[in-house]
Amino acid sequence: MNYCFIANFQVFTNNTLFLLATCKENNNFHVIKFFRIQNVIILKFIALPKTREMIPTLYKSALHPREVKALLKLKIKGRKYAIPKESLAALVLKLDDEAFCCAALSKVSRSFAVVIQQLPENLKNAVGVFYLVLRALDTIEDDMKFPKEEKLKLLRNFHKKSYDENFTLKNVGDQEDYRVLLEHYDKVIRVFKSLEADYRDVIVDISEKMGNGMAYFTEKEVVSLDDYNLYCHYVAGLVGIGLSDLFSASGLENPELKNRHDLSNSMGLFLQKTNIIRDYHEDIFSDRSFWPKEIWGKYAGELSYFTQKPHDLKSLACLNEMVMNSLEHLPDVVDYLRLIKNKSIFRFAAIPQVMAIATLAAVYNNPKVFTSVVKVRKGLAARLILYDLSLEDTLTYFKKYSRVFLRKSPAGTAEHRQLLQWSKVLNKKIN
Ligand code: MG
Fold first, then answer.
1. Separation of alpha carbons 315 and 72, rounded Å
2. What are the C-alpha distances in Å from 262 to residues 265, 427, 430?
C-alpha cells in the first residue's frame, strides 16, 4: 500500500479550527485522523504548494494547538521574519552594509535571527554583529581544508582585524552562505565600526579569547571532562559572557549580570553540550567529536561503537551520562534568568534554554541519537518565538521536562538516583 501523508485545514465554525490528517491511497484521499482544535484564532490556511512542505511539521504539533497556531501565524503573518529567498551572493550586490548583515544573519543563524530582531533597538545591531563575528570565527575553525598553520595564525589574530576594512577571506567555509559572509566580511567590519565603543570593546575582547581557545583546541583533542568544559567555555561560555557584557553595556539590564560570568558561562555550556550530544551522529561521520573520552571510555573502546550498537544498554548509559553532565548546568541557568529584568532580553536568553532542555528530553535514553539527528518539534520553537515567555513559564517548562527525564530513566539505577538528586536541587531553585 502506498501511503502518502497530506493534511488539510478547514474552518468549520466561527471559533474552531479543524485539522484533518488524510492519507492518499491510489490517488484517493481518506481521512484518517480528525483533531478538533479549540480556542485558536481562525486562520484560513490553504495547502498551496508553498505551504505543503510545512505539513509534516504541522502534523507533529497536531496535539499542541498553540504550536499549530504559532506555526501558521509565523508562516502567514511572519514575513518580516522570513529568510530571504535569494542567495546571499545575489543579495550582496543590492544591499547596503547593514541590510547585508541582516540578510546574512537570517541566512546563517535562522531562528536565532528572529529572536535577535525582537531585542531592544539599541542592542539589536550589537548582538547581530557579535553573532556574525563569532560565526566567522567558527567558520574558520570548522573548515577542515584550511592549512593548519595558517588557520592557527588566523584564529589567534582574528580580533586584530576588527577595524581593518580591507579584511576579507576567499574560499573559507564548508557552506556557501558562510563563504559569502567571509568574502564580504568588510561589510560586517563597517557595521561593527558604527557601534558604540562599549559594545565594540566587548566584541573584540571575546573574539580574542575565543580565537585563541579555538586555536588551542585545533591542536588538542577533547579527552577529559576538564577539556570538555574548557572547549565548551571557549566556543559557547564566552558567548554567554559576551552577551551579558553587551546587556550591561546597553544600560537596559541588571548591572549584576556583568559580575556573574560563572552563570553566563553555564548558560553557554548548557546549550553547547546539548548540541554536542544531539550532533553525535553528524559529527562522527565528519571525523570529529567532542564527546569526552573520560565519559564514553567507560562504556566502549571506540566512540563509533554506539553507532553499531545503538540499543545496547552501555550505549544508552553513556548517552544518559552525557545528558546528566549537561543538566548539571541548569540550576545556574535558573539563577541567571532570575537576574534578567528586561522582557525582550529575557525572551532572547530563555528561548534557547527551553529548546535545549526539550532537546535533552528528546535525546535522553533514545537510541536514535546514534543513527540520526533527533530534533525537537519546530512548533515548540514557533510558539516560544511568537508568544510571551515569562520567568514563570520558563520555570514551568524546566519542571515539566525534569519529570520527563525521571520517567524515562530506568528505576532503581544509579542514573535514576542521580536524576532524583538533581531534580531536588533544581526544584529548590525553582520554588
Ligand atoms: Mg566549530
1. 39
2. 5, 21, 19
> Would you say the pTM of this structure is higher than 0.90?
no
Cα–ligand 1 centroid distance for 139 (angstroms): 7
Which residues are near ligand 1, the ion (C-beta closer than 5 Å)?
Answer: 138, 141-142
**How many angstroms separate the CA atoms of 119 and 356, rounded?**
20
Q: Are residues 104 and 171 in the same domain?
A: yes
Task: Report CA(131)–ligand 1 centroid distance (Å).
Answer: 13
Specify which residues 223 forms β-bridges with.
Answer: none
Which CATH number belongs to the domain containing residue 335 in this structure?
1.10.600.10
Q: How far apart are CA 79 and CA 95, in angstroms?
A: 18
Q: Are residues 62 and 138 in the same domain?
A: no
Catalytic residues, by residue number, are: 231, 278, 288, 348
Are 399 and 254 in the same domain? yes
Calculate how far, in angstroms, residue 224's C-alpha sits from the geometric centre of ligand 1.
19
CA of residue 346 to ligand 1 center, whole Å: 26
- DSSP E strand boundaries for 260-310: none
| Total structural domains within the chain | 2
- The 3 state secondary structure assigned to 201-243 is HHHHHHHHHHHHHHHHHHCCCCCCHHHHHHHHHHHHHHHHHHH
C-alpha 138 to ligand 1 mean position (Å): 5
73 with 119, same domain? Answer: no
Q: What distance in angstroms lies between residue 274's CA and the mean position of ligand 1's atoms?
A: 14
pLDDT tens by residue, the chain, 431 residues: 333 343 444 434 334 444 444 444 444 444 334 444 443 333 334 344 455 567 677 767 766 767 777 776 666 555 555 667 789 999 998 999 999 999 999 999 866 788 898 899 989 999 999 999 999 999 999 998 889 999 999 999 999 999 999 999 999 998 999 999 999 999 999 999 999 999 999 999 999 999 999 999 999 999 999 999 999 999 999 999 999 999 999 999 988 898 999 999 999 999 999 999 999 999 888 778 899 999 999 999 999 999 999 999 999 999 999 999 999 999 999 999 999 999 999 999 999 999 999 999 999 999 999 999 898 888 887 788 777 899 999 999 999 999 999 999 988 999 999 999 999 999 999 98
Which residue among 25, 47, 81 closes a domain?
81
Structural domain boundaries enclosing 72: 3-81
